[in-house]
């Protein structure tokens, strides 16, 4: 367990955000149920028009406050690393008499406990509320409430790892957002371009795909339809959370602190990532050019535009320094 002094530092440094996150995480689930109950009461009293009879159903597929809980994991991670680094507070943090491993674990432990404990507290309050209100049915309540804890931890660990690899907030968010769709960029996009070049069909795109494959895309969890599938699939984001923790830990321990506002803390990543961005730009714009014109000429024009745009984006993102405050 991290040193109490480090935990207190994380608390003092992010006190307002932590309090807001805890309150929203605790109250979000019960308020979702109350909102559904008030809607039901509106039907009973005739204030709202329903199709069919009035039924008090707690249905988590109809949209709830907790569907956005993952955002607070992102905000916590940005505050703990991106903002701390951009405001040069990281120099003070690293000067404390602790190892880098202890510092990172204190951050991860603080954020993880805030997410898990507060959402569990909200879940328990919601269970008590369901016992009190006695809805006719509760659809996906347990699966969604407990699954969202894993999803929030995934978002938190992903963005925290992005912050450990990068030198400022924009880089942290851009890398994290890219990773959420990385399987598409590395597998589906090249296959689509291969179809265009060969004039045929790449079998695995159009053939049967196992249900669990979509869970390899972190962006899948932004939309709550994942709750319709087996809860055992949530093992995948749990494993990804551990992987991102390991990446973040190693990056924070091994890489030097960034004072110059560069994109990546590990400089050998600059050129390979730039090349990858350009290639993705070529394939992405090439596909859109082909789809828009339905011609190979449009495909070539799109590839040329993608090369230029990919170069400019990668150059100004990776090599242009961002001033710290």
Automatic annotation (TrEMBL):
Q: Which UniProt keywords apply?
A: Membrane, Transmembrane, Transmembrane helix
What span is annotated as the signal peptide, if there is one? Answer: none
Give the domain of life: Bacteria
| Alphabetical list of InterPro entries matching this protein | ABC-5_transporter, ABC_transptr_acetoin_YtrC/YtrD
Q: Which residues cross the membrane?
A: 16-40, 60-83, 104-132, 144-166, 173-192, 232-252, 273-290, 296-318
| UniProt name for this protein | ABC transporter, permease component
* Phylogenetic lineage: Bacteria, Bacillati, Bacillota, Bacilli, Bacillales
């Amino acid at each position: 367990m991290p040193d109490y002094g480090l935990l207190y530092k994380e608390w003092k440094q992010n006190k307002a955000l932590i309090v807001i996150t805890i309150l929203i995480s605790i109250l979000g689930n019960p308020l979702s149920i109350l909102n559904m109950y008030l809607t039901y009461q509106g039907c009973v009293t005739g204030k709202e028009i329903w199709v069919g009879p009035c039924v008090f159903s707690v249905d988590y597929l109809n949209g709830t406050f907790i569907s956005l809980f993952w955002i607070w994991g992102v905000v916590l991670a940005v505050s703990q690393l991106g903002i701390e680094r951009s405001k040069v507070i990281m120099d003070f943090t690293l000067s404390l008499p602790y190892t880098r491993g202890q510092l990172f674990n204190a951050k991860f432990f603080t954020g993880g406990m805030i997410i898990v404990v507060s959402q569990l507290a909200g879940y328990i309050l919601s269970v008590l509320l369901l016992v009190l209100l006695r809805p006719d049915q509760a659809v996906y309540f347990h699966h969604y409430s407990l699954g969202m804890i894993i999803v929030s931890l995934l978002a938190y660990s992903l963005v925290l790892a992005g912050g450990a690899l990068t030198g400022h907030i924009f880089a942290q968010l851009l890398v994290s957002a890219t990773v959420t769709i990385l399987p598409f960029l590395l597998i589906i996009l090249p296959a689509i371009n291969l179809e265009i070049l060969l004039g045929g069909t790449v079998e695995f795109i159009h053939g049967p795909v196992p249900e669990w494959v979509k869970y390899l895309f972190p962006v899948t969890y932004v939309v709550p339809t994942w709750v319709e599938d087996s809860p055992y699939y949530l093992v995948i984001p749990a494993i990804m959370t551990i992987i991102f923790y390991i990446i973040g830990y190693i990056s924070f321990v091994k890489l030097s602190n960034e004072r110059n506002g560069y994109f990546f803390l590990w400089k050998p990543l600059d050129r390979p990532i730039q090349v990858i961005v350009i290639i993705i730009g070529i394939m992405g714009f090439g596909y859109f050019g082909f789809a828009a014109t339905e011609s190979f000429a449009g495909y070539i024009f799109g590839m040329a535009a993608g090369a230029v745009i990919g170069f400019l984006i990668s150059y100004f993102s990776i090599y242009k320094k961002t001033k710290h405050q």
